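B., you asked whether I could sanity-check this one before it goes into the benchmark set. Here's the sequence:
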Amino acid sequence: MPEWRVEPGLTPYPDALAVMEARATAIRESGAAELIWLVEHPPLYTAGTSAQPNELLMAQRFPVYAAGRGGRYTYHGPGQRVAYVMLDLAERGRDIRRFVEALEAWVIGTLAGFGVEGRLIDGKIGVWVGCGSETAKIAAIGVRVRRWVSFHGLSINVAPDLEHFSGIVPCGLAEPVTSLQALGRTTTMADIDAALLQGLPQMLRSM
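And here's what the prediction gave me:
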């Protein structure tokens, strides 16, 4: 099993990038342990490799960081659980699509434990709830794979300030975002972490 680490407090984004870069390199070059790292960040926006400048609506509102992962603009902040997933995909099938599908299923299973039915939308990466005009995104996924080691990962909106998403077009998509809190599910970050940990073995088996 990978190392499981829950970081207390708010982790500055540059620090997270440095840790991921170092661990990904160590996994490949020296056989370091894989790592699932759970963090929260202070309010910030990140730009993926496909980010479009016109989708950053309030550039001065929060710090903006180039993330190096796939995808477009995302928001991170307090009340959002970010799971950084550093796995050796060379030992786990070398199938990036299946890896992303495993992450999506991991999120859906976690949400189900809180009475929320997550779903996928064809052609889009992430997890949504509701349908029709009530469709809203509750979790984002953005990964990078280098030398068959993954880093970055996923974020689940537990109880963030949803207004903070208004400074960007989240992931370049028109659908609004939501959270467990907005859906009336009052829970703690520790509860989310426990559910993620419980579902981790199944996620790894599905890769």
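One thing to flag: The chain has a mean pLDDT of 94. Otherwise nothing jumped out at me.
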